[in-house]
Amino acid sequence: MLSLYDGALNVPKLLKEWYEEESQSNYGAYIPFVGTVRSEDGIDGLSFDIYEPILESWFLSWQEKAKERGALIKMAHSRGDVLLHESSYIAAVFSPKRRVALEFIDEFVEDFKASAPIWKYDLRKGQRVYAKDRSTAIKGSGILGAKQ
């Protein structure tokens, strides 16, 4: 399950919904990860653009990986502006065994940071400024993308 929202995520609401959706599914572990916009370099927040078709394809491949391990993955991400101390990203793994969930959430979040087609901008005094120094190029992307 992949959900995209305009603006900051309502963390308590989403985590409660996900928990309630899976509470009778016989999973022994529910491991959430919440990404929060932190104060750094004088920014007022972050803003996000998402290329949804590639994100959906990327997420579907992770759902298949989770299924192979008897697990389930859910993710929510923000589009647009998210201010300091608000959440822009939530992921959660449900699994029969805690070790699978712990390992899978780590793998998923790391690959998300490296591979998800989401572009980040700093918010500074009402302006969006591309956060190049904190962005990761997607392998093979763009006309000038490095071929690996």
Summarize the structure.
Helix content is 32%, strand content 34%.
Structure keywords:
single chain; 148 residues; alpha+beta; seven-stranded mixed beta sheet; 32% helix; globular
Strand-helix topology:
Layout: E1 2-6, H1 11-22, E2 29-36, E3 45-50, H2 52-68, E4 72-83, E5 87-95, H3 98-115, E6 118-124, E7 127-130
Parallel strand pairs: 1-4
Antiparallel strand pairs: 2-5, 3-4, 3-6, 4-5, 6-7
Strand content: 25-35%
Q: Rg from C-alpha positions?
A: 16 Å
SS elements, strand count: 7
- Major sheet attributes: 7 strands, mixed
What structural class results from the helix and strand content? alpha+beta
Give the overall form.
globular
Distance between the termini: 30 Å
Note down, in words, how this protein is organized.
The chain has 148 residues and is of the alpha+beta class. It contains three helices and seven strands, in the order E-H-E-E-H-E-E-H-E-E. Strands 1, 2, 3, 4, 5, 6 and 7 form a seven-stranded mixed β-sheet that branches. The longest helix is centred in the last third of the chain and has 18 residues.
